[in-house]
Write a structure and sequence with these properties.
Helices cover 62% and strands 12% of the residues. By secondary structure, it is mostly helical.
């Protein structure tokens, strides 16, 4: 039931954003469409079963959005600086980082967050390890790379997904 509820809320939010209207017709039709989609997909593949649905997790979800936005902004500036000034060092490589996240969807969310920030790309996930292509490897040991790449995201995702 939780999976169904979260699916309907997320899909309805996207529906309302795309329609840019809060008219009763848009809301009712959105509820019908999103309920049908959520029922179909939630029964077959419960994506949000590991997501916690409590006030702390909801607050951390919104905090994560701001942390991710800030990290995205910093990474964009760093990559732009490297493009504009080619004399800046680039030391690309693939590093292994470890995650404390236990749920598959939590690891997937972490991997996608890392990939969306410029300068990093998640190449593979094996158990609790993620292999990241990093534009400027500043730490080759697992603990150092984990601290630089994963730590800011993980503390919020751990509360949301476990």
């Amino acid at each position: 039931m939780k999976n169904l509820f979260i699916s309907v809320v997320l899909l309805l939010s996207v529906w309302l954003l795309l329609n840019a209207s809060l008219s009763p017709v848009v809301i009712v039709s959105g509820l019908i469409v999103t309920a049908i989609i959520a029922i179909f997909f939630s029964a077959r593949n419960p994506v949000f079963k590991d997501m916690k649905l409590n006030p702390k997790a909801i607050i951390y979800f919104f905090l994560y959005f701001f942390v991710f936005t800030f990290e995205l902004f910093k990474a964009n500036l760093d990559v732009a600086k490297r493009v504009i000034s080619p004399k800046l060092p680039i030391n690309p490589g693939i590093v292994e980082v470890r995650t404390r996240l236990t749920s598959k969807i939590g690891r997937l969310f972490l991997a996608n967050s890392i990939t969306l920030t410029p300068g990093t790309l998640t190449v593979d996930i094996k158990n609790d390890s993620l292999f990241i292509h990093w534009i400027d490897v500043s730490s080759t040991d697992i603990e150092g790379a984990t601290k630089k790449i994963v730590e800011n995201f993980e503390k919020y995702l751990e509360v949301i997904y476990g």
